[in-house]
Structure formats: structure tokens, C-alpha cells
């Protein structure tokens, strides 16, 4: 039984993440999506909101995945859930530089843990959660960036926040 862990900030989940989850799910016996909690990083959406949106999106897509939030080291959570593989998406050469360094650093801590890189569909290689956050914070349209129902949920939240 090979279990994989796909960690990320998912702040918020994008079409690029969903594309990767769909590609990767059939390759492993189990897939865990781990929402990383980083108190030093300013996030637009709370951990609960990110988990809620992930849950809604994967349920709608009929994807059988486990969801969890984690704080601390990735290798610790991989060990805790029994994941042998960490899944990460790579869109371009900059991603590769960053991700290979992270994978090799993680290997110093847990040599048996493999990191596997997957490339999304070309239509999503431009997409980043960072730019989605900027569009969302500015009240822009998320419909071509974020899967439903996450796009509507995020917009509703932002509209509520604007009400004094
Ligand atoms: O979607 P992101 O923001 O690229 O995800 C980053 C994440 C959560 C995978 C990364 O920040 C992480 O692994 N955090 C856990 C802390 C850790 O293990 N750091 C050492 C990495 S070498």
C-alpha cells in the first residue's frame, strides 16, 4: 500500500491544484492533502476555510482523498500519516530549483521519503495562489482561477468582510 502526501498552503486551492490532485490520485493507494499552517506567513484564508474549500472541491469532483492540517515539519507529518511519497507540482524551472532543494533538505531528515514532481496541464502553468490572493483581496473575479464552490465561497467571505 503506497500512500502519498500532497502538502501545500492551498491559500486558496486553484484549478492547478485540482488538476494535480486528479492526475495523482489514481497512482497511489491513498492520497492525503495536507494544509500547511505557517503562523509566520500571512494568509488570506484561515486554515478552516482552506480545509472547507478543499473538502467541497474534492467531494464535488468525486475524489477519494484524506484531508488534514499540519503545523511543523513536513517530514514529521509524512511519518505520522505513513506516507512514502510527497507530491509536489512543478510549473517551470524556478519551481524546480525551489522544489528540488526542498526535497533534498527533507531527505536529510527522512531518507526513505521520496518526493515526486508532477506537471499540471499547460493551461494552469501560469496560475499561482499568490496571484489569486491578490485578485481576491482586490475584489476581482476568481471564476477562471479557482474551482467552484471555492470561488463563490471566497467571494462571499470577502464581501461580508467589506460590510462595516
Ligand atoms: O503551497 P506551498 O506554499 O508551496 O506549500 C509549502 C509547504 C506547506 C509544502 C512548505 O511550506 C512546508 O513543507 N512546510 C512545512 C515546514 C517544513 O517542513 N519545512 C522544511 C522544508 S525543507
Which features does this protein show?
164 residues; alpha/beta; 5-stranded parallel beta sheet; 5 strands; 43% helix; globular; binds 4'-phosphopantetheine
Architecture blueprint of SSEs:
Layout: E1 3-8, H1 15-24, E2 30-37, H2 47-60, E3 66-71, H3 74-81, E4 85-89, H4 93-109, E5 114-118, H5 129-137, H6 150-162
Parallel strand pairs: 1-2, 1-4, 2-3, 4-5
Bound molecules: 4'-phosphopantetheine.
The site of 4'-phosphopantetheine (PNS) has 10 residues, from strand 1 and helix 4.
Task: Report what the structure shows.
The protein is an alpha/beta fold. Helices cover 43% and strands 18% of the residues. It is built from six helices and five strands, in the order βαβαβαβαβαα. The chain has helices at 15-24, 47-60, 74-81, 93-109, 129-137, 150-162; strands spanning 3-8, 30-37, 66-71, 85-89, 114-118. Strands 3-2-1-4-5 form a five-stranded parallel β-sheet, with helices on both faces. The longest helix has 17 residues, at 93-109. The N and C termini lie far apart (52 Å). The mean pLDDT is 94. The structure holds 4'-phosphopantetheine.
Strand order of the largest sheet: 3-2-1-4-5
Looking at how many chains there are and whether they match, the oligomeric state comes to single chain
**Alpha-carbon distance between the two ends:** 52 Å
Mean pLDDT: 94
Structural class: alpha/beta
Tell me the overall shape.
globular
- How large a portion of the residues is in β-strands, by DSSP E? 15-25%
Bound molecules: 4'-phosphopantetheine
Number of strands: 5
Poorly predicted segments: none
Topology as H/E string? EHEHEHEHEHH
CA radius of gyration:
16 Å
Helix content class: 40-55%
Count up the helices.
6
Largest sheet: 5 strands, parallel
